[in-house]
Design a protein that fits this description.
Elements (H helix, E strand, L loop, with lengths): L33 H4 L13 E2 L2 E4 L3 H12 L4 E4 L24 H34 L6 E9 L2 H16 L5 E3 L10 E10 L2 H10 L7 E3 L4 E5 L4 E5 L2 E5 L1 E4 L8 H4 L2 E13 L7 E4 L5 E6 L2 E10 L6 H15 L2 E15 L5 E4 L6 E5 L5 H17 L17 H11 L1 H11 L15 E6 L2 E7 L5 E5 L10 E3 L4 E3 L6 E3 L4 E3 L11
Parallel strand pairs: 1-10, 2-3, 2-11, 3-7, 4-13, 11-18
Antiparallel strand pairs: 4-6, 5-6, 8-9, 9-10, 12-15, 12-16, 13-14, 14-15, 17-18, 19-20, 20-21, 22-23, 23-24, 24-25
The protein binds FE2/S2 (inorganic) cluster (FES).
Length: 520
């Protein structure tokens, strides 16, 4: 989904789609990912007792499953340890951008990493797409993988120059970006560039067969096994609630590393809102993203139009339902929508300098991590699996240094680091001073969550549709910020580093690893 509006230097200011007229089409009552709904998966066992393997992989999304596949194929015994269900975490709620284009502007990439670094970056993302294509072909995986063009466009004359600048920067770093005026969309655009040979697939129809091929010959897949600690050593130890896995190397493929606070603060977390709609006619053939602010993306999947955007920082939007409504209003103005079949939102981790952090976790010898994929997690997750599996196998990888998790930040990204992480100290203090959002528990409606005070304590209170009340500590178990209720997803979201908890307090997204304590 290149490129995120807030990073583009030449994108014109434009009023938010939220100011447009409301749509009449109904949004689904519940958030449900198209990918999960259309590709159910089998159950895997919970870890029961202690185990020794060559490599422990924490997390069964695209990163962990791809790494485990590559390592098992190299002859190692691998244990994949998933806290919930396989391919049902961040990967299951993906916006499904499968492209070699990175999720910051090409000019940003050039200025942060130079021409050689930027060229290496897009070579590496192309290699990731090729790796997916190879795994699909070798395994005969029926996931709808195919190549198709991508289009970056502006609907306005003012935005056209930004598209032209990006096309020029893309060509400079080795991408065959062609400026065009026509795109296969049912509305006119002022300017676009086209990149051939991007791709699409159904992410779970791709990953479930990879997971199914892992168990056996000393390798395992575990679900419902929450990791509480990762210890570096000879061997390393992965501590879970139901046993400990010893391994000579550990890959924390968990979107955000579990125990590395220094890296956790180098990424900023956003929610992106996605709808899948049935159209009058077929969806357009291609991947599309605009350069508006807020920006939008479009593609087809399962005969539906998938479109979204309206990103905001996690825990910093009080009216999350309005974001879906804005996406719907945007789509309704441009496409003949018949019905909205699915709605879901995705979690996006933004690095401060435009590229993910992949490699050995700071200060450790055998623990590896990957985070900061931005909006192109399917591509970067695959690339991270390639880099980390090469490192564990002692193989050279030409881009390992480029993505090094401990790399020194250029000056420009240091400024972004400060601006993205000002939230932590600011929210840590300010949210403690805010008053109760509802005067008392009796004021909570069914389906509503709010912060309130009980016996002088800050409490996260939720009343289920059946009237049942759940009281949780409102203090995030990561570093202590105050969580906020997300009405659209019915979750408690932390504005500081993106942790999310369900209404029972269980962790949905890290970096938090412990649930919100129940009160009362
Ligand atoms: Fe860091 Fe909540 S995610 S304090």
């Amino acid at each position: 989904m290149p490129t995120r509006a807030r990073r583009h230097p030449s994108r014109p200011a434009r009023s938010s789609a939220r100011s447009r007229k409301p749509a009449a089409l109904a949004l689904p009552a519940e958030s449900e990912s198209l990918w999960i709904a259309t590709a159910p998966g089998p159950r895997y066992p919970r870890l029961a007792g202690d185990l020794a393997v060559d490599v422990a992989v924490v997390g069964a999304g695209i990163t962990g499953l791809t790494a485990a596949t590559l390592l098992k194929r190299a002859g190692l015994r691998v244990a994949v340890i998933e806290g919930a269900r396989v391919a049902q975490g961040v990967t299951g709620y993906t916006t499904a951008h499968l492209t070699e284009v990175v999720d910051c502007s090409f000019s940003t990439l050039l200025s942060h990493f130079g021409e050689d670094g930027a060229r290496a970056a897009v070579r590496s993302t192309r290699a990731a797409l090729d790796r997916i294509a190879a795994l699909v072909a070798e395994g005969g995986i029926d996931c709808g993988f195919r190549r198709l063009p991508g289009f970056y466009y502006s609907e306005t004359k003012e935005g056209a120059s930004g598209v032209e600048e990006e096309a020029e920067a893309a060509r400079k770093i080795g991408l065959a970006a062609r400026l065009v005026k026509e795109v296969p969309l049912p509305f006119s655009v002022a300017r676009a560039f086209r990149l051939d040979d991007q791709a699409e697939f159904h992410p779970r129809r791709y990953l479930l067969p990879l997971a199914a091929a892992l168990p056996g010959a000393g390798s395992h897949v575990f679900e419902d096994t929450r990791v509480t600690d990762v210890e570096d050593g000879d061997p390393c130890r992965v501590v879970t609630e139901s046993g400990t896995v010893s391994a000579r190397a550990v890959f924390t493929a968990t979107h955000v590393p579990l125990t590395r606070v220094a890296v956790q603060t180098k990424v900023a977390h956003y929610r992106s809102y996605v709808l899948a709609a049935r159209l009058e006619g077929a969806p357009p053939d291609g991947l599309f993203w605009d350069n508006e602010d807020p920006y939008h993306y479009v593609r087809g999947a399962e005969g539906l139009l998938v479109f979204g955007g309206e990103d905001h920082k996690v825990g910093q939007e009080e009216d999350t339902v309005s974001r879906y409504q804005s996406v719907l209003a945007w789509g309704r103005e441009r496409f003949p929508l018949r019905s909205i079949e699915y709605r879901w939102s995705a979690q996006v981790a933004e690095p401060v300098d435009g590229l993910p952090y992949i490699g050995r976790a700071g200060g450790s010898r055998h623990v590896y991590m990957a985070t900061g994929y931005s909006g192109t997690g399917l591509t970067f997750g695959t690339l991270a699996a390639m880099i980390v599996s090469d490192a564990i196998l002692g193989r050279a990888n030409e881009v390992a240094a480029l993505y090094d998790a401990g790399r020194v930040k250029p000056l420009a990204s240091a400024r972004e680091y400060v601006s993205e992480n000002v939230d932590f100290p600011a929210r840590f203090v300010a949210d403690r001073l805010k008053g109760a959002e509802v005067p008392g528990l009796e004021a909570l409606e069914p389906g509503q969550g709010a912060l309130t005070e009980v016996d002088g304590k800050r409490v996260a209170a939720y009343r289920a549709p059946d009237g049942q009340l759940t009281l949780l500590s409102a203090t995030c178990t990561h570093l202590g910020c105050i969580v906020q209720f997300n009405e659209a997803e019915r979750s408690w979201d932390c504005p500081c580093h993106g942790s999310r908890f369900d209404t029972a307090g269980e962790v949905v997204n890290g970096p938090a690893v412990r649930p919100l304590p129940k009160l009362g």
